[in-house]
Amino acid sequence: MDLQIVFLNFPYFVAIILFSMGTLIVLTQPNLVKKVIGINIMETSIFLFFIAVGNAHGGVPPIFDASAPDVFYVNPLPSVLMLTGIVVSFSVTAFALALIVKLYIYYGTISAPNFMKLK
Amino acid sequence: MDVTISKLPFYCVIIPLIASFCMPVLARWKKEFCAPLATLATAAVFVITLVIGYQVMNNGPLAYHVSGWEPPWGIEILVESLSSLMIMLISGVCLVIMVYSFVAVKFELERIITGWYYTAFLLCLSGMTGLVISNDIFNMYVLIEITGISACALVVAKGSRMATEAALKYLLLATIGSGFILFGIGFIYMITGHLNISFIAIELAEVKDTYPILIWTTLSFFVVGFGVKAALFPLHLWLPDAHSSAPSPSSALLSSLVVKVYIISFLKILFIAFGLEIFHETFIRHLIIVLAVIAMLSGSFFAFVQIELKRRLAYSTVAQIGYIFLGIGLGTPWGLAAGMLHILVHAFMKTCLFLCAGAIAYQTGRKQVNEFAGMGYKMPITMGAFTIASFSMVGIPLFGGFISKYGLALGSLEAGIPSIILVIILSGLLNATYYFPIIGQAYFSQDEHEAHGEEHGAKKFQKDQLPISMLAPIVVIALGIIYLGIFPGTALNFINQTIAMLL
To answer: What gap in Å lies between CA B420 and CA B152, rounded to an integer?
Structure first.
């Protein structure tokens, strides 16, 4: 019984695990490109979480059909919100990579400990 | 007439947004038109916010439903009295900084960057005003990202190694912060099925006993997210680098406004969406008070050991953010009012100090705090403004900082934690230890390099060698600090109306 609940809700567990992994990668990896990949993993896990929130077991795609007006729909709102989220994530990635290119020109390396110091 | 007025809040987001996207094109065609157009857009927003403020004060909150969709489904913009005060503050301070950056941008940035600098500036303005007045949490997330990314762009505009490093660090940590916020929004949507704050509040009040653990989780996600964004003490690591390596008009904007708007949206989520009951039942309050107290003391300690002026100012921001969070944590009428008033006062003080730091670097090229000897004679007006702002930081009566610290002290008495007063006084004294040496040096000692040729002790006043567009903003903002110190009533009226609604 318990196992079945876990199985039904497994997207949430995956989302939380991916989120923690992404955060850990950003904070601990010395390589700047890996940090950006970590950010992407983190944000993708949030997208997964939102879509899992919107999902309903046995729901159909939310397209209105006049012949069957009261079928059980999946909630489309979280998926739509995540389109915005993907755009934001894309622009952050692009900006971060541009900054990394600039740092590479300055230092000739993309390994953070060689120049990033906590002051 | 009424329809036009209810659309006004929407215009103060859309005008800078449109203007910002005109900038790069304009910069290619006629570079000298960028600054006047950007100033015009900011001034237009400022005038609109004044009208909104007048309207809100007399007729109550303004609500606008974007493109006519009703609240539970559409995006709602709601301007209550606190938000109207904050958008007035944001656009006013932005206008002042914009005027200052006419010359400062030419001095500090490469010529090719100019157009992009104004793009980022206007985007940041648009994001901040939107963030303060939006009543929809997902819309808030989008505006948080707009503000965050354009703030990073403002830091990196300088183009130096330090600025690029700081901007990358800022970007990575800010993205973690907004990731946490988005996760929190996801949890809220899961619990309530709404994105509009007013509807979330109604729904959460009903279901809060059903999902206690989920609400704990959500709150902790929000605290971490907004804590990173607003540089609450242990999460402040990005702030000193970003604020000290940015060009000085950008650091004024970042330090005085950008970190504050996150606090205002945190306040909205905490007090309106979650409501007072959850605030008092969970231990979130104690956590915020403890972190704020640590921030107030350690921020001042870190500021004390810095040699570079702008780094010292940046660490001082960490301490002052502590004051504002303390006001939120106390959660009593006086505490909250003082915290919000401190947003206002600190925006004025920090803008003034950073603009003065920029002006001093412009005229004399000095950036270290031990090079200020005789500065009061070379730049009397700038140092006068610096002195006013520092006195206000320390909390001397007649200056704005005194009122908010006094209010915080009253608030901690109301909350029954009188020991906090000790912390406030101690932090004020620490502020004195790192601002007064600069002022003392500037007025009471002589510059050794220049003293040689002249007679001994011949200190002569000179007028500041600054263009009027740099001097005027500094003077205006310094007068603003004194005004807030003597007549805080108007601002407190605005704040208290909202707080009466919250508590």
So the answer is: 35
